[in-house]
């Protein structure tokens, strides 16, 4: 047995909460409980529970949840020898309280006393008075003894679920899948799409960033977005660099009508509009489309916005010159930004999305004029949601053919282009620039 980790050397006492102010640890507990259902995302819950919190508390809430989710496998391994969940309805709450305590004790800079005391108080405030002695004993024991685990077990093997490890190994091989896993547990940079792409270098200089080969401006993460120059004037919007690629791959924009299916929150719609296209954003969620409206208004761009299920649009829906389909998917390429995927997503849920993606592709065909381009993309690392979908679609639609993506279109970057001319971006790509989100993109042309 080998000790794997000591506690951080510099550790702070927990901040005192003003009387009557929400406790961010209690909000973190509520968030973990609600994530278990798999239907809501961490970002949605942070917007809900973090609304109105002072900046320091909001940042602590995000850090505590992100740390807990990224290290969840390790945390559960640390707890396993000392804690067996009770066989009653409080088990999930009690386990999540202990998880938050271990996250602070071993993976954050909270003082030992602060981590233990605040976790005991959290249990008391959550109505679990009879378990406070158990929590104190478990955390004090870990504080005193540290933790060990078997030689040869790596952090990523504990923190990445088995179904994901297995699927990545099958798709990419052992060495690359390990690198993907390790990169996925890191932190993402802050990427911006500039409304006037010809000024990207100027904006990068203003904000002490850099321009990626694909055209996005990249900044260090952790900066307050609303305080950055150009935000209030609508000169740019936040958009992951990989997600910003597909909308730049159409052969023409001026005077062209382009559908953006499953459009919310609107980053690609804004790109299409800024390039001169008549963009039509379609999404079935009125709430999410509200964000599209707000984003378009902030950046002073125009687009048609349609509420509707893209799998079941009316037969008389007008056709367009091009269609961009960013299909709903498991989002396993975005774990760096959304570590809740490690908890919410599973193989069964991923497979339940496959028929929806197929329906959307078939609907996109019905919306596209002959000679038009169809771009299909997902923020997933799973081949079933990317390469396999395109292979099946082409087999069922012989009137389509691939239009290979070229390095010239990506500023000379060819690392992610596969043999079929599709884009398969991995988190290990562009490592010198801080990595990328996992992404798949294919471009098809309707011949007849």
TrEMBL record:
CDD domains: AdoMet_MTases. Residues 1-23 are annotated as: Disordered. Keywords: Methyltransferase, RNA-binding, S-adenosyl-L-methionine, Transferase. GO terms for biological process: regulation of DNA-templated transcription; RNA methylation. The keyword Acetylation does not apply. The active site is at residue 379. GO terms for molecular function: RNA binding; RNA methyltransferase activity. Belongs to the class I-like SAM-binding methyltransferase superfamily. RsmB/NOP family. This is Sun protein.
